[in-house]
């Protein structure tokens, strides 16, 4: 069975500083990977996804993520954060084969002015 | 926006009463899910469905049942609501085929059990 680990439950970052949110997965087969963002009191929206091809994936709002198969990671990065990036971020995986969507526990990103 | 809607969006109910939440999709996606979101716990899977009449339990299924009689509808029932089931409930849909995969969420249902 697959699993997703987000090691940091909370990440405080100063405005305009870079940020990396970590995501590691466990699976015996190939996977599709996703990052979702949830702004306060809102639903979840897709930031970006990795299906195949280039391991560097660009998403909305200046975020990007890199798929690293050997380290089973899919870390999310942004070179310069803004107050509007304050949100909770969820990493998710779908296995080739059983296709069930599995989420990590989320990382709350807080931007410090 | 993906065609996925949850109803109701807000509900207050009394302890011991049954409650049914509805998730409706127009994307014809195979998988449908119900999650609950609580502070400090992230998203926890309650039940999911991989086709009409095909459902399975998630990690927090006690006290909940589901039904999927049509591709487009996935119902979550709290058989006898308790205060511990006060939460925000999210429905999601996903489909994987031909080297592509997508997953979308509903806007959530805020349920309060008093």
Q: Give me the number of helical elements of chain A.
A: 0
Q: What distance lies between the first and last C-alpha atoms of chain B, to the nearest angstrom?
A: 34 Å
Q: Write the H/E string of chain A, N to C.
A: EEEEEEEEEEEE
Secondary structure category of chain A: mainly beta
Helix content of chain A: under 10%
> How would you state the average pLDDT of chain A, rounded?
92
Percent of residues in β-strands of chain A: over 45%
Question: What amount of the residues of chain B lies in strands?
Answer: over 45%
Q: Runs of chain A with pLDDT <50, length 5+? A: none
Shape of chain B: globular
Structural class label of chain B: mainly beta
Shape of chain A: globular
Structure description:
The complex is a heterodimer of chains A (113) and B (114). Chain A has no helices and twelve strands. Chain A has 113 residues and is mainly beta. In chain A, strand 5 and strand 6 (44-50) form a beta hairpin. The model of chain A has no long low-confidence stretch (mean pLDDT 92). Helix content of chain B is 0%, strand content 63%. Chain B has strands at 4-7, 10-13, 19-25, 31-38, 42-51, 54-57, 64-70, 73-78, 87-97, 100-105, 109-113. In chain B, strands 2, 4, 5, 6, 9, 10 and 11 form a seven-stranded mixed β-sheet that branches. In chain B, strand 7 and strand 8 (73-78) form a beta hairpin. In chain B, 38% of the residues are buried. The mean pLDDT of chain B is 93.
């Amino acid at each position: 069975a697959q699993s997703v680990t987000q090691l940091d439950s909370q990440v405080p970052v100063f405005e305009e500083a870079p940020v990396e949110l970590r995501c590691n997965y466990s699976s015996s087969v190939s996977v599709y990977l996703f990052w979702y963002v949830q702004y306060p009191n809102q639903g979840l929206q897709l930031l970006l996804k990795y299906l195949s091809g280039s391991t560097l994936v660009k998403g909305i709002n200046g975020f990007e993520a890199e798929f690293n198969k050997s380290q089973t990671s899919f870390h999310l990065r942004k070179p310069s954060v803004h107050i509007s990036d304050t949100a909770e971020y969820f990493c998710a995986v779908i296995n080739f084969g059983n296709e069930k969507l599995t989420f990590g526990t989320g990382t709350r990103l807080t931007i410090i002015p | 926006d993906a065609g996925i809607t949850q109803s109701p969006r807000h509900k207050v109910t009394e302890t011991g009463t049954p409650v049914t939440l509805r998730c409706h999709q127009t994307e014809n996606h195979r998988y449908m899910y119900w999650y609950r979101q609580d502070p400090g716990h992230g998203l926890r899977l309650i039940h999911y469905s991989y086709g009409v009449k095909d459902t399975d339990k998630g990690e927090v299924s006690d006290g909940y049942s589901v039904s999927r009689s049509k591709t487009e509808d996935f119902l979550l029932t709290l058989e006898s609501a308790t205060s511990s089931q006060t939460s925000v409930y999210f429905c999601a849909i996903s489909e994987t085929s031909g080297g592509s995969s997508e997953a979308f969420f509903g806007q959530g249902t805020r349920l309060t059990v008093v």
